[in-house]
UniProtKB/TrEMBL annotation, chain A:
Alphabetized GO MF terms: transmembrane transporter activity
Record protein name field: Glycine/betaine ABC transporter substrate-binding protein
Entry keywords, A to Z: Signal
Gene3D superfamilies: Osmoprotection protein (prox), domain 2 (3.40.190.120), Periplasmic binding protein-like II (3.40.190.10)
Signal peptide: 1-20
Organism: Knoellia flava
Domain of life: Bacteria
GO cellular component: ATP-binding cassette (ABC) transporter complex
Annotated ranges, domain ABC-type glycine betaine transport system substrate-binding: 46-302
Keyword Signal: yes
TrEMBL record, chain B:
Keyword Secreted set for record: no
Sequence segments annotated as region (Disordered): 223-272
Keyword terms: Membrane, Transmembrane, Transmembrane helix, Transport
Classification via PROSITE patterns: ABC_TM1 (PS50928)
PANTHER family: GLYCINE BETAINE/L-PROLINE TRANSPORT SYSTEM PERMEASE PROTEIN PROW (PTHR30177), POSSIBLE OSMOPROTECTANT (GLYCINE BETAINE_CARNITINE_CHOLINE_L-PROLINE) TRANSPORT INTEGRAL MEMBRANE PROTEIN ABC TRANSPORTER PROZ (PTHR30177:SF33)
Listed GO CC annotations: plasma membrane
Alphabetized Pfam families for the sequence: BPD_transp_1
Organism in which the protein naturally occurs: Knoellia flava
Name recorded for this polypeptide: ABC transporter permease
InterPro entries: ABC_transp_perm/SBD, MetI-like, MetI-like_sf
TrEMBL record, chain C:
Primary location recorded for the protein, binned into one broad class: membrane
Origin superkingdom: Bacteria
Organism of this sequence: Knoellia flava
Amino-acid biosynthesis listed as a keyword: no
UniProt keyword list: Membrane, Transmembrane, Transmembrane helix, Transport
Protein name: Glycine/betaine ABC transporter permease
Domain ABC transmembrane type-1: 15-197
SUPFAM superfamilies (UniProt xref): MetI-like
Compartment(s) where it occurs, according to its Swiss-Prot or TrEMBL record: Cell membrane; Membrane
Length: 307, 272, 215
């Protein structure tokens, strides 16, 4: 027993110790010949367009990179970085120089009590909230919002049209959503405070896992983006957000400020060409028709004389 | 960082509730145990049969090549394929357990097979000479003699499954993986690190318990004066605890070599 | 199959990255494990300490280690060095024991004979002990290679591209062929590593074949 205790003590101290030597320059880190993946920032150099880990973000990143290349900017993509909490760190530490973002989501990220819902006001307010070395270029008319989605049968049997209608039945329902939805202010806490809606259980799911779970009745409601083609594909019903809990979510390029000048012409032109219908159609091609984001992006740029 | 991890680990808010640390540990152990029990139900008889008859050794090689399969991919594939066929909570549990079972069959199978295979042929002949038949030889001679390697295979399996059960969180299951996955998604590294500490401690605790069991059930005749055995140095190769899971078995290994101390079974037992 | 046919370029690019992320740590890990394993043999008290410590490192879930690396190393969040260092830690954890046991498997009589022939210190280590330990070390290296190839795929979850991207993308867009392609590519890569190590082992231990022993 004594030895076991000793080993346990050793474990804890070793793991803790491991996380303690933060910032220490490990010689191995610089030895890696593969460490060149992260683009070097500076002046009018090359840019890396990052993306979050969902198909729409990947598609937008390809569109941005393609448009930049067409305007002579040396651009590459860094797909599937992760959630907002992670990729904003990557933008901060210079691993990436641009990322497709959503106006309202940025507002909620930088201010827990963000209240604006009008697209213009959201944009202006967010400009004031951004860290000094970040900049937003022009926003597009395209919106991709969070939504709470149920199957047609659930909507009919429980008479659901708006999120507020969930109040009576949510207590017996389960909600599927990406893990971060549970803590974000406009996620589970927001549903509670704005609509008084509390689901019985929360099931953290992402990607097709979430769509499949809703389709097969393993969750009763799901947090899916409004542009997600699986909604139409499966005849899901998106419940109206009457209180504007999810705010306005216009697609907008978020860039490193010192690079914004060289990226502005290309990315502003992209924003002008994007509408909610356009992005929904493009997304259908990648998610339902399984085309490559790169090819769909190239076709879009060609059709709009951007590439 | 350390201070915040310790604070997280000791805070009552972390531990309480349906989704608290206590509940997560129980879930985690449940998935792990379920997977090991099912895997053992398949792998132990199979290993005994292969070891006893010497037939179908390719099964052991095949199982070993399963190690190269990326757990994450297997999990996604099984979840998408099985998920729609099952309803309710089981739709999340079954795919994860299936993957974990596949993951831990190799160490258990190799352990059992190597253990039985390494039983001294003279011992086996002696048993036959005494009039024992097939199943009697297996039960009364081969299993007791192979026990050290069988148990070390099981220990490997447990360590592996506890570290790997964390990935189940990716397809919506509970367990300690929730702290890792949710922590990463929300940028809350303290709970990621805290969750990792708990996983490691849990793995070592379980291994310690199994090491104790091993000492109790293995015949003293096999361990032969267990004190000081592991300290004898050069003349005492301790390759056995890595080998049942790595090689397809060679007859040069004797059960008595499976020198064990708490924590040392973990060396070859990590996946994700 | 159609999906695979349309994406050979992507698969190869990801596979190349995968080879680096799994292979480089294998080399670095071996280089670090050699002196550590030797020390564990040389000072017997160090042996249980090193073995417990490496067993312990191996219980840390890879996902957590990957994510915590930037905090520990001070690297950028998407730096591939995060994955390389984490994988090197796992490799060392696995190989220290193997190296120590491999060196321990050299018969005492052989060592005495070498000493009698005038082999001393480093020369004895590189000329006699290490070559004779190759089979055991190679066996450990093969396990490490296979497990590295599998673990590296988890790095997709922290934004470092390699074959694991086929798995996550396939899951997000429900492209079964892509997931299967990712799995198969990983297995093939693991087999390649395995074959390479086996080949190296044969080249380094010609006497095994001469004796008709199994490799």
């Amino acid at each position: 027993m004594k030895r076991m205790t000793a080993v346990l003590a050793l474990t804890t101290t070793a793991i803790l110790g491991l996380s303690a030597c933060g910032g220490g320059g490990d010689p191995l880190a610089s030895e890696s010949p593969t460490a060149s993946g992260s683009g070097s920032s500076g002046g009018g150099g090359s840019v890396v367009v990052g993306s979050a880990d969902f198909p729409e973000s990947e598609l937008l990143a390809e569109i941005y990179a393609g448009a930049l290349k067409a305007k002579g900017v040396d651009a590459t993509t860094k797909p599937r970085i992760g959630s907002r909490e992670i990729y904003l760190k990557a933008l901060e530490d210079g691993s990436i120089q641009a990322i497709p973002e959503y106006t309202g989501a940025l507002g909620f990220f930088y201010d827990k009590n963000f209240k604006e819902t009008d697209p213009e006001k959201v944009y202006t307010a967010v400009e004031g909230l951004l860290p000094a070395d970040f900049a937003m270029l022009e926003k597009s008319a395209a919106e991709d919002n969070d939504s709470i989605v149920v199957t047609k049968e659930t909507a009919d049997s429980k008479k659901l049209k708006t999120i507020a209608d969930l109040k009576a039945s949510a207590g017996e329902m389960s909600l599927g959503a990406p893990p971060e939805f549970q803590k974000r202010p406009q996620g589970v806490p927001g549903l509670q405070s704005t609509y008084g809606v509390t689901f019985k259980t929360f099931r953290p799911l992402t990607g097709q896992g979430l769509v499949q779970a809703l389709k097969n009745g393993q969750v009763d409601a799901a947090n899916i983006f409004t542009t997600d083609p699986s909604i139409a594909e499966n005849g899901f019903v998106s419940l109206e957000d009457t209180e504007k809990l999810f705010g306005s979510q216009n697609i907008v390029p978020l860039v490193a400020k010192d690079q914004s000048e060289q990226m502005a012409p290309a990315l502003n032109a992209v924003s002008k060409a994007l509408t909610t219908e356009v992005i929904a159609e493009l997304l259908k091609q990648t998610v339902i028709d399984k085309k490559d984001a790169k090819d769909v992006a190239a076709q879009f740029l060609k059709d709009n004389n951007l590439g | 960082m350390i201070a915040s991890i310790l604070e997280w680990l000791t805070s009552s808010a972390t531990w309480s509730g349906e989704a608290g640390l206590g509940a997560r540990i129980v879930e985690h152990l449940w998935y792990s145990l379920l997977a090991v029990v099912i895997a053992a139900a398949v792998a132990v008889p199979l290993g005994l049969w292969v070891g006893h008859t010497g037939r179908a050794r390719w099964l052991v090689s095949l199982a070993n090549s399963l190690r190269a399969v990326p757990t994450l991919g297997l999990l996604f594939a099984v979840a998408l394929w099985l998920g729609p066929k099952i309803s309710g909570e089981l739709a999340f549990l079954i795919p994860s357990v299936v993957v974990l079972v596949i993951l831990v069959i190799p160490p258990i199978l190799s352990g059992v097979y190597a253990g039985v295979e390494a039983v001294d042929p003279a011992t086996r002949d002696a048993a036959r000479g005494m009039g024992m038949r097939g199943m009697e030889v297996v039960r009364q001679v081969e299993i007791p003699n192979a026990l050290p390697l069988i148990l070390s295979g099981l220990r490997s399996a447990f360590l592996q499954v506890i570290a790997t059960a964390t990935v189940a969180a990716y397809i919506g299951l509970g367990g300690l993986g929730r702290y890792l996955v949710d922590g990463i998604k929300t940028g809350d590294y303290v709970s990621t690190a805290g969750g990792a500490v708990v996983v490691s401690v849990l793995a070592l605790l379980v291994d310690g318990v199994l090491a104790l069991v091993q000492r109790l059930v293995v015949s003293p005749g096999l361990t032969g004066g267990r004190t000081g055995r592991t300290r004898r140095g050069r003349s005492e190769p301790t390759t056995a605890s890595t080998s049942p899971t790595t090689s397809t078995g060679s007859s040069t290994r004797s059960p008595a070599r499976s020198g064990m101390s708490a924590g040392d079974g973990g060396v070859d037992s990590h996946a994700t | 199959m159609e999906w695979v046919n349309d994406h050979w370029g992507d698969i190869f690019a990801l596979a190349r990255s995968h080879v680096w992320l799994a292979g480089l740590p294998l080399v670095l890990g071996l280089l670090i494990a050699l002196p550590l394993g030797w020390a564990a043999r040389r000072w017997s008290r160090l042996y249980p300490v090193l073995i417990s410590a490496s067993g312990l490192l191996y219980t840390i879930p890879s996902l957590a280690l990957f994510v915590l690396m930037p905090l520990i190393l001070g690297t950028r969040v998407l730096d591939r060095a995060n994955v390389v260092v984490a994988m090197t830690i796992y490799t060392v954890a696995l190989l220290v024991r193997t190296v120590a046991d491999g060196l321990g498997s050299v018969p005492e009589a052989t060592l005495q004979a070498a000493r009698a022939m005038g082999y001393k210190g480093l020369r004895r280590f590189f000329g006699v002990e290490l070559p004779l330990a190759v089979p055991v070390i190679a066996a450990g290296l093969r396990v490490a290679a296979v497990s590295n190839v599998s673990i590296v795929s988890v790095a997709s979850l922290i934004g470092v591209s390699q074959l694991g991207n086929l798995l996550t993308d396939g899951y997000d867009r429900f492209i079964t062929a892509e997931i299967v392609a990712g799995i198969v590519a990983c297995v093939v890569l693991a087999l390649l590593f395995d074959g390479l190590i086996l080949l190296g082992q044969r080249l380094l231990t010609p006497w095994v074949r001469a004796q008709g022993g199994r490799a």
